[in-house]
Design brief:
InterPro entries: Ariadne (IPR045840), ARIH1-like_UBL (IPR048962), E3_UB_ligase_RBR (IPR031127), IBR_dom (IPR002867), TRIAD_supradom (IPR044066), Znf_RanBP2 (IPR001876), Znf_RING (IPR001841), Znf_RING/FYVE/PHD (IPR013083). It comes from Rosa chinensis. It holds the Pfam family IBR_1. Might act as an E3 ubiquitin-protein ligase, or as part of E3 complex, which accepts ubiquitin from specific E2 ubiquitin-conjugating enzymes and then transfers it to substrates. The chain is built from 14 helices and 17 strands. It has 590 residues and is mainly α. The chain has three domains: 197 residues, no CATH class; 148 residues, no CATH class; 68 residues, no CATH class. Strand 16 and strand 17 form a beta hairpin. Helix 13 packs antiparallel against helix 14. The longest helix is centred in the middle third of the chain and has 54 residues. It is extended.
Length: 590
């Protein structure tokens, strides 16, 4: 809202008679005006608009103007009513016309003052807070109730409420303990601006503006620090992506305000983030990597080679790490010989159950660490890609232009598009690991398809990232004559990898957002029998669906053939590429 006008010191009077036009509202602004008239142009999906603070204030003014006109009240009074009704204009109008007196009483909007004074020129009356006497017509102010207070006491009361009470200042009442009259924005403006408290007045206007946004179902503030923009989101039907980007360059999910997380739903994101912060993971680590002292039961971690452990004070118990038996008289423990019953396989004993729990916890922890490390690593890779992309835009494109003198800046758009694709795909790949963690472990067909789709997408992204990151460097040092032909080949390769990678990730996102409903839709790879394979280079044993070795990135030598057209890996059980439908030339497909 625009700054409210304030009068000079000689114009002090009851706020009820203030000049409401000082609010500088524009009566020509209608509530049903489209935000598009002054908002940022819609996204490619055309389902959200970025609103700056001034634009939000105009929307807020529309509500105030409509209520003022329909209810025949001042705009100041409309500012009091709307926050109480959470800016729901229809609800306010219905209740007002059903029982105006009840609404006034609820909000503290009085029709006439409780205390009336004969405003003579030299009338002196005491302030209700400090009890000093002041000239009524110059130094005393009142809300709609008429209770008199001096301007200094008003300023202290209002400022304290704004600074300490926060949004509660929008429901400020008369300082008189027995009075429930509301303190309106006209009086607040007059008091604060005439006492040089512009900062507090600015906070009040901010709280009023934020109350409007926070009560709107389709508008939310951008969560980025120090950003004053909000985003209005419209669901246009069908499958909706909540990914939005603010003018401050912050991209996030509008629905849950976390980072963009397609193809994972907001509920799963909440569980994953909570899990990463949850202390239960620490408890699970303790269970996996420690054993309880046989005497005091405190968990102990073995951090040295010797199996003779001594529990810390005050326990001091000495025992063997392997069998948890006592070390008597420091002579050691002889548990190398197998004796029947030395391994407790009785499911009814606590030792058996503890060991079973340790093994189960270790399995769960290893699985969690597998997904978390890859989720975290792709996040770091995305951050590094953003840094590299900034360098490409500010330095490398300029260097290429100096080397290839006959080129224009838009001739290097393919490099920009490649880096944009890398950043976007890194974010998607990051969240597929959270998706994979919560997949039911007994859904074997879906799990295999998921890992197949994820593996193809990840392999393609690594090729694209390497090409854009490493192969570009050689063209920053070559002479124009030496770089000309090879640069054309580089462009063809990078454009192709960008397109193919985008196709992989589009297919991956679509499949995951649909819940992998029909495995047959995604090619014969869904039905391919999963058998583990051993990497020829590093001997690491990989799951059958892995396209590349998880340890050294060597390609799977068996079970897949590479499409000459789009480079995707296809199971040997099919003769046509399930990505581009091209035939396998080696198998004679047509």
């Amino acid at each position: 809202m625009d700054d409210m006008h304030h009068e000079s010191d000689d114009g002090y009077e009851s706020a009820e008679s203030g000049d409401e036009e000082a609010m500088n509202y524009d009566d020509d602004l209608l509530v049903d005006d489209k935000v598009d008239d002054f908002g940022q142009s819609r996204s490619p999906q055309e389902n959200y608009i970025v609103l700056e603070e001034e634009e939000i204030a105009k929307l807020q003014d529309n509500y105030i103007a409509e209520v003022s006109t329909v209810l025949s009240i001042s705009k100041f009074d409309a500012c009091l009513l709307l926050p109480h009704f959470h800016w729901r204009v229809d609800e306010l109008k219905d209740e007002w016309f059903a029982n105006e007196d009840k609404v006034r009483e609820k909000v503290g909007l009085l029709k006439k003052p409780i205390v009336e004074h004969n405003a003579r020129a030299n009338l002196r009356i005491p302030c209700g807070i400090c009890f000093e006497e002041y000239n009524y017509d110059r130094c005393i102010l009142s809300a709609s109730c008429g209770h008199p207070f001096c301007r200094d006491c008003w300023a202290g009361y209002i400022s304290t409420t704004i600074c300490d009470g926060g949004p509660a200042c929008l429901r400020l009442r008369c300082p008189e303990s027995s009075c429930s009259a509301a303190v309106g924005p006209d009086l607040i403006q007059k008091v604060l601006l005439n006492s040089n408290r512009e900062a507090e007045h600015g906070k009040y206007k901010t709280y009023l503006l934020r109350s409007y946004v926070e009560d709107q179902r389709k508008i939310k503030w951008c969560p980025a620090p120090d950003c004053n923009c909000a985003i209005q989101f419209d669901t246009l039907g069908g499958m909706v992506s909540y990914d939005v980007s603010c003018l401050c360059s912050h991209s996030y999910c509008w629905n849950c305000t976390e980072e963009n997380h397609r193809p994972v739903d907001c509920e799963t994101v909440g569980k994953w983030i909570l899990k990463n912060k949850d202390d239960s993971q620490n408890a699970q680590w303790i269970l996996v990597n420690s054993k309880p002292c046989p005497q005091c039961k405190r968990p102990i971690e073995k951090n040295q080679g010797c199996n003779h452990l001594t529990c810390s004070a005050p326990c001091g118990y000495q025992f063997c790490w392997l069998c948890l038996g006592p070390h008597k008289n420091y002579r050691g423990c002889y548990c190398n010989s197998y004796r029947p019953g030395s391994v407790d396989n009785n499911p009814g004993t606590s030792r058996y159950m503890n060991e079973t729990a340790r093994k189960r916890a270790k399995k769960y922890l290893e699985r969690y660490i597998h997904h978390y490390e890859r989720w975290e690593n792709n996040g770091r890779s995305k951050g590094k890609a953003i840094e590299d992309f900034d360098k490409v835009k500010t330095e490398h494109i300029k260097q290429l232009g100096e080397i290839h003198v006959n080129t224009k800046e838009h001739d290097y758009d393919f490099i920009i598009e490649a880096w944009q694709q890398i950043i976007e795909c890194r974010q998607v790949l990051r969240w597929t690991y959270a998706y994979g963690y919560y997949m039911p472990q007994d859904a074997y067909a879906k799990k295999h398809l998921f890992e197949c789709l994820q593996g193809h997408a990840e392999f393609s992204l690594e090729r694209l990232h390497n090409c854009a990151e490493s192969e570009l460097q050689q063209f920053l040092v070559l002479s124009p004559s030496a770089a000309s032909e090879t640069f054309k080949e580089f462009k063809t390769k990078l454009v192709g990898l960008t397109k193919v990678t985008g196709t992989y990730f589009k297919r991956l996102v679509t499949a995951l957002e649909e819940g992998l409903p029909e495995t047959s839709r995604y090619g014969a790879g869904a039905a391919y029998e999963e058998t583990d394979w051993t990497c020829d280079q590093c001997t690491y044993i990989n799951v059958g669906s892995a396209v590349i070795c998880a340890a050294c990135s060597e390609q799977n030598p068996q079970g897949y053939w590479s499409c000459d057209r789009c480079t995707i890996f296809n199971p040997v059980t099919t003769t046509r590429c399930w990505m581009c439908d091209d035939a396998d030339a080696d198998k004679g497909g047509e």
